[in-house]
Write a structure and sequence with these properties.
It contains 21 helices and 25 strands. It has about 600 residues and is an alpha/beta fold. The protein has a 5-stranded parallel β-sheet with strand order 4-3-5-6-7, sandwiched between helices. Strands 12-13-14-15-16 form a 5-stranded mixed β-sheet, with helices on both faces. The chain has a 4-stranded mixed β-sheet with strand order 2-1-11-10, with helices on both faces. A hairpin with a 5-residue loop joins strand 21 (about 460-465) and strand 22. The radius of gyration is 25 Å and the shape is globular.
Length: about 600
């Protein structure tokens, strides 16, 4: 079967990332592009100014001897230099490999060795130190560039000066030679075995997805995004390209802790996040509604907002409801809009399911909230809710050039120009079948209007509410290394941290805390819970921070095949266990 990406490229005008970027610079060269806070004020560099630095980065990569197709890795937080490195690598015909800025040293070493990275760009001294811990293992690494200048290290300014105008002709030759099917990036995603897998994403994968998603969402040249979701996350990476394609601006938050302040300073029109931020904002609004009068006012405004939204779907809003909505906005919802800077046109969410009541609140408050579905392997967007007719409980409709099929067993299959070329160094992988369908591992169904709902997950990856994916098996095996733990079930799907349900060794644990060797009694013993919490902290210390088990609950009985908790091969039936021990699970996440 023909490659959908080749079919798309045969009809498209812009097919590579450098082509798309250069096209925007020609039209919007003097518009503000990338902003960062310097000396208490946001300063923006124009598209033309960034292009000058992108060309300098590309020339330097050529001068350092990197050949087309070699890898440039980056371990850094969101900042203009991240984008310059990415675009510079693309202009030099290289492959950009982003790493989550919080990765543990062992994970850093695994990825850099798997992709055979020649150059690594790191952001901070702390990130550099994590690399230093495993640097002796990095046989392919040639050069390290440190964005935050440090004595004895090659800083970004020095790196940009390595090349000169004599290398520009080679840069131009490489840009002209690029094709939509050429590899642009390796984005590593956790597999069910726990080892990261490098999804091979091509230029056309990104460009097709960015152009189609950007058109559907309606991004414009006068839009401005506040970016805080890591650029190493393919969702934020695609949004970077979508905004770039129309000449929009992007401002980078100082940190997750300063997002609330940065929203007031930047006053963005577009904001994208995983559900956790929206959940936290919703929780703060609820916490601020104290007293009977305020609670009644809030409930009234929420009811008015819901009725107004529903009426708007049919384009028939009674005048009385319009008047009510005007008062509800002035008295209640305007304060929520001001918290987000007062100019938001779109809120975008993905990577994990959004709780229904949270979605209802933002739609009632008058925001255009767009929830979608995608995966790293699909660059990433597969479906998105249309701005004018979103449907809560669904992830919207497929993009125009993306096909979605529900297999007989309910699995969601995807085919289109956005689908990756496969996983690096895994020729045996069968996630893409002979007909070009990518098997997502998710279970779903379409409603009569073509909106997709995700109902289950064939894969057992935990997807946290911040969008990060955690493979439970390695954690569970590590926990069972404790002499006090017999069985372990890692949890955290759609939650904000990883926790664990544990079945202890009743004799060993009982002796340690001076209690009877009884599982039911130990489950309620504070000393036993504290000891196993400390065990979990100790055993998971070398995992990345978001993977570590933060809390544990002790189960009152053993998990057995006879009770239906385990398969005949003694694998945990995760869904069954979570249903049967729902009370213990909820207690773990009770604020």
């Amino acid at each position: 079967m023909p490659d959908p990406l080749e079919e798309w490229a045969s009809k498209a005008t812009l097919t590579t990332i450098p082509q798309m970027f250069r096209h925007t610079v020609e039209r919007y060269g003097e518009r503000p592009y990338l902003g960062a806070k310097l000396e208490k004020t946001y300063h923006y560099q124009t598209y033309a100014e960034i292009q000058t630095k992108v060309h300098a980065a590309a020339r330097s990569l050529v001068a350092l001897g990197l050949e087309p197709g070699e890898r440039v890795a980056q371990l850094a937080g969101n900042r203009p230099e991240w984008v310059i490195t990415d675009l510079g690598a693309q202009h030099a015909g290289l492959v950009h490999v982003p790493l989550y800025p919080t990765l543990a040293p062992d994970a850093i070493a695994y990825i850099l060795n798997d992709c055979q990275a020649r150059i690594l760009v790191v952001g901070t001294a702390e990130q550099r130190e994590r690399v230093r811990q495993v640097q002796a293992e990095l046989g392919h690494l040639k050069t390290i560039v440190v964005l935050d200048s440090q004595p004895g290290e090659l800083d970004f300014g020095e790196f940009l000066a390595r090349g000169d105008e004599s290398h520009q002709a080679e840069v131009e030759r490489r840009v002209a030679a690029l094709k939509a099917t050429d590899l642009a990036s390796l984005v590593y995603t956790s597999g069910t075995t726990g080892q990261p897998k490098g999804a091979m994403l091509r230029h056309g994968n990104f460009v097709s997805n960015a152009l189609e998603a950007g058109s559907l969402i309606g991004v414009r040249s006068d839009d401005l995004e506040l970016s805080f979701l890591p650029l190493s996350h393919v969702f934020e990476r695609m949004l970077l390209y979508a905004l770039t394609s129309v000449g929009a601006g992007i401002a980078y938050a100082e940190s997750l802790e300063t997002v609330a302040q940065n929203l007031q300073e930047v006053r963005p029109t577009v904001m994208a996040s995983v559900p956790r931020l929206y959940e936290k904002l919703y929780a703060r609004v609820q916490a601020g509604v104290q007293g009977n009068v305020r609670q009644k006012l809030f409930r009234w405004a929420l009811d008015v907002g819901k009725r107004y939204f529903e009426a708007g779907q049919s384009k028939k809003i009674p005048r009385a409801l319009q008047l009510e909505r005007r008062f509800a906005y002035k008295l209640v919802f305007s304060k929520v809009h001001q918290r987000l800077g007062g100019r938001i046109r779109y809120l975008i969410t993905g990577s994990a399911p959004l709780r229904r009541e949270v979605g209802e609140f933002f739609l009632a408050a008058g925001f255009k909230l767009l929830e979608g579905y995608g995966l790293t392997e699909t660059s990433p967007i597969v479906t998105v809710n249309p701005p004018e007719s979103p449907r809560l409980g669904t992830v919207g409709r497929p993009l125009a050039d993306v096909e979605v099929l529900i297999a007989p067993d309910g699995e969601i299959l995807v085919r289109g120009p956005n689908v990756m070329a496969g996983y690096l160094n895994r020729p045996e992988d069968d996630s893409i079948d002979a007909d070009g369908w990518f098997h997502t591992g998710d279970i779903g169904a379409f409603d009569q209007d073509g909106y997709l709902s995700i109902t289950d997950r064939k894969k057992e990856l935990l997807v946290l509410s911040n969008g990060k994916k955690v493979a439970p098996a390695p954690l569970e095996e590590r926990l069972k290394a404790s002499p006090y733990i017999e069985q372990a079930v890692a949890v955290g799907d759609n939650r904000n941290f990883v926790a664990a349900l544990l079945v202890p060794d009743p004799v060993a644990l009982g002796e340690k805390v001076g209690a009877p060797a009884d599982l039911a009694a130990l489950a309620d013993n504070p000393q036993a819970v504290e000891l196993l919490t400390q065990e979990a902290t100790r055993l998971c210390a070398d995992f990345s921070s978001y993977e570590r088990v933060k809390k544990v609950a002790l189960l009152p009985r053993e998990l057995t095949e006879a009770a239906g908790d385990l398969t005949p091969t003694l694998k945990v039936k995760r869904r069954v266990v979570l249903e049967r021990f729902a009370e213990q699970l909820e207690n773990l996440y009770r604020e």
